[in-house]
Write a sequence for this structure.
């Protein structure tokens, strides 16, 4: 008896140890399958079935976390040529799903390439399915906006083993939302026939995806690694999509909804080492709406990949407001070819890939463009999905606008042609910018990654002949300035991070000849250096030169050097540093002393020094009958600019040494015949040899020159050379004098018309 008790005890110990070891093995096996936090209780055997009061756990995958809880589980085994599960009944099954983006980040694992399975390899595991599986109460909790959505329903599955036949049906519902799914799988002569149907008639909000609705139908045949698609259809709509990939787009360009329709091409047999062809149409709803029509080719070998062939993307927005940009009637029409794999995305645009807009406005920049057209045909893009910063882009650019408006530019068309390239090292652009006026520039942009961008603009040579591209381009170009010849070259260099930070450049005008207002000029040479930094504009020249200038009086040469600084917001109210300036006048010259002028003030003052002006040349050009003489004049006088008008006060002129002054006019002789005093003056001035010739000088805002002359000398033929002192006040309307000189001389027809217009304006009350 004791031996029997010991034997039974030993058997029980062995069974207990086996149960413990089996439990540990089962625990480790389930954990290795991704199941965690496993708990169960109330496990018992009764009425020929295994009963489990409750069980719970969590399965964690790369896609997210699935929590489950089972209540009232009944598993009834059977023996038919081996152990089988005849029936599995679950009173209540609760599933809680959380996508990966809602969970703490885990250490990244190497991803294995997934491919469509060979259903024959699943025959063994499928044989363990129960002949009947029923979940009387199924509760599915899915993350919605700031909460969980609960769907309630039931799941029913039946299975036959010889041959294999499965049928499953799922019904879930919550308020107006409903999920209906059906699955049938059966074995037929070594092949597996799979039919599936899933319906979401009302939008179901899913975190990380959006509000999903639609209908999916599939009829597939599997023979090993070969699949035959007999029929299929996908009609789906995703409202408020939440794809992470959309976050790279501005909010205004993100679609409010995406609808998709996929229809297999007839007879799409694929080994998945090749492709399966599907006709796909995507429709986009939102501020930017349109559709993508393409042929989608799917393959699974050596990994999943997709190709879009014969694609055409068409988008349109009646109005579009982006950050700093307002657009009307925007249209995009792109023929495209795309390839997507687990490593990268490639995109190639076909010929005639266009983006057009009726108008574009950039209020901050003061720009308005009409008739905008961008041709991006044959552009290509490669994007490694794991390292997006390794993006590569190669795009020919053909951009144009029929009318560009800006306060500094005259309205007209502009075009930009070139090539844009993006690589891991940075962004580059080589192209040319051209206005319809004829102003052209070559552009080179280089923007290394993480460094400031650099732009070089080289002005194509401008020859100023019949047409003047500068006058036809810039609104502030002086209306009274015109060229008949000349050559302009130049280049600009700009740099910055997000916006413009620094600009430097050089412009050079040589051989300039033309007219400014009522004055002609020749031999204009202007080398100009410019800079812009911290919103401060600087212009600098060391060698401004004009060979001749004729406002009615021949002048020249003119030479000057100086620097101008101004705030970019007030370019006309800066400071001008005059380093040197001189102009040839009547075989002498007038020199300006170095000075600084504040053009923001109403009055500026300069000092002019007269050197070596010859009286003989003055009397050659001054229209006074019978007046002649010799001598050299020097002087000094302050010049004030009052609201742009020239004013001179307290000026001084004086002859350098003794000279001769003759006034032998017939009009004076006739007056002297009846006036003894004038007779004496006429005799003295007939050949007046002066020792002193000095004058006060003033010039007012109306253009009246006043000379207070003081003459000391004698005429050897008058009263035996008795000394004579004369004080003479002369007034002359200089604008009228120059007008008279121009009207009586040989002048350009343009100048003549301007002079006549000026003369008529002065005579008008």
């Amino acid at each position: 008896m004791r031996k029997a008790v010991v034997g039974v005890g030993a058997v029980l110990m062995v069974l207990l140890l086996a149960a413990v070891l089996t439990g540990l093995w089962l625990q480790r096996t389930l954990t290795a399958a991704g199941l965690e936090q496993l708990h169960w209780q109330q496990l018992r055997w009764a009425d020929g079935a295994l009963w489990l009061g409750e069980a719970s756990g969590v399965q964690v995958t790369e896609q997210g976390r699935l929590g489950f809880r089972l209540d009232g589980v009944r598993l009834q085994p059977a023996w038919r040529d081996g152990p089988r599960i005849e029936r599995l009944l679950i009173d209540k099954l609760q599933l809680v799903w959380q996508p990966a983006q809602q969970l703490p980040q885990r250490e990244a694992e190497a991803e294995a390439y997934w491919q469509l399975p060979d259903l024959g390899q699943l025959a063994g595991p499928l044989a363990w399915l129960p002949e009947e599986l029923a979940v009387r109460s199924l509760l599915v909790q899915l993350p919605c906006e700031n909460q969980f959505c609960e769907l309630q329903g039931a799941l029913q599955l039946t299975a036959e083993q010889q041959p294999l036949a499965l049928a499953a049906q799922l019904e879930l519902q919550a308020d107006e939302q409903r999920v209906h799914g059906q699955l049938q799988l059966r074995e037929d002569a070594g092949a597996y026939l799979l039919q599936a149907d899933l319906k979401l008639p009302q939008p179901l909000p899913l975190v990380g995806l959006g509000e999903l609705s639609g209908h999916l139908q599939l009829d597939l045949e599997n023979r090993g690694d070969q699949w035959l698609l007999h029929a299929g259809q996908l009609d789906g709509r995703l409202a408020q999509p939440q794809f992470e990939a959309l976050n790279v787009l501005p909010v205004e360009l993100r679609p409010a909804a995406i609808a998709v329709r996929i229809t297999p091409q007839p007879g799409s047999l694929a080994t998945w080492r090749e492709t399966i062809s599907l006709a796909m149409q995507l429709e986009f709803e939102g501020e930017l709406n349109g559709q993508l029509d393409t042929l989608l080719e799917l393959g699974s070998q050596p990994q999943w990949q997709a190709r879009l062939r014969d694609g055409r993307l068409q988008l349109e927005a009646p109005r579009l407001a982006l950050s700093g940009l307002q657009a009307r009637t925007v249209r995009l029409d792109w023929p495209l070819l795309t390839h997507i794999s687990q490593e990268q995305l490639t995109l190639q645009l076909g010929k005639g890939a266009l983006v057009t807009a009726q108008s574009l406005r950039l209020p901050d920049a003061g720009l308005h463009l009409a008739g905008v057209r961008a041709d991006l045909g044959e552009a290509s893009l490669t994007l490694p999905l794991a390292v997006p910063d390794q993006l590569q882009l190669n795009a020919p650019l053909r951009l144009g606008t029929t009318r560009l408006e800006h306060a500094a530019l005259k309205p007209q068309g502009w075009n930009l042609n070139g090539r844009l390239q993006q690589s891991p090292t940075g962004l580059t652009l080589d192209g040319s910018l051209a206005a319809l006026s004829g102003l052209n520039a070559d552009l080179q942009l280089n923007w290394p990654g993480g460094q400031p961008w650099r732009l070089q603009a080289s002005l194509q040579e401008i020859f100023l002949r019949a047409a003047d591209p500068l006058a036809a381009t810039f609104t502030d170009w002086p209306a009274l300035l015109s060229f008949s010849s000349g050559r302009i070259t130049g280049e600009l260099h700009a740099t910055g991070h997000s916006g413009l930070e620094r600009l430097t450049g050089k412009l050079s005008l040589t051989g300039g000849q033309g007219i400014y207002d009522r004055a002609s000029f020749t031999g204009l040479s202007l080398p100009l250096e410019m800079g812009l930094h911290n919103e401060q504009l600087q212009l600098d020249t060391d060698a401004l030169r004009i060979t001749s200038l004729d406002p009615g009086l021949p002048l020249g040469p003119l030479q000057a050097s100086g620097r101008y600084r101004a705030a970019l917001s007030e370019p006309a109210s800066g400071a001008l540093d005059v380093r040197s300036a001189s102009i040839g006048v009547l075989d002498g010259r007038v020199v300006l002393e170095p000075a600084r002028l504040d053009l923001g003030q109403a009055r500026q003052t300069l000092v002019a020094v007269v050197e070596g002006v010859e009286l003989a040349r003055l009397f050659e050009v001054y229209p006074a009958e019978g007046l002649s003489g010799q001598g050299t004049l020097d002087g000094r006088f302050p010049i004030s600019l009052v609201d742009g008008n020239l004013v001179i006060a307290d000026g001084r002129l004086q002859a350098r040494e003794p000279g001769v002054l003759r006034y032998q006019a017939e009009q004076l002789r006739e007056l002297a015949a009846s006036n003894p005093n004038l007779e004496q003056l006429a005799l003295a001035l007939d050949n007046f040899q002066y020792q002193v010739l000095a004058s006060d000088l003033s010039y007012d805002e109306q253009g009246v020159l006043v000379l207070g002359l003081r003459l000391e000398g004698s005429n050897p033929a008058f009263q035996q050379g008795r000394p004579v002192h004369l004080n003479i006040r002369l007034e002359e309307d200089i604008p009228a004098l120059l007008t008279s000189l121009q009207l009586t001389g040989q002048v350009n027809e343009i100048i003549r018309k301007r002079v006549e217009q000026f003369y008529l304006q002065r005579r008008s009350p």
Observations:
- Residues 2-32 form the longest helix (31 residues).
- The longest strand covers residues 305-322.
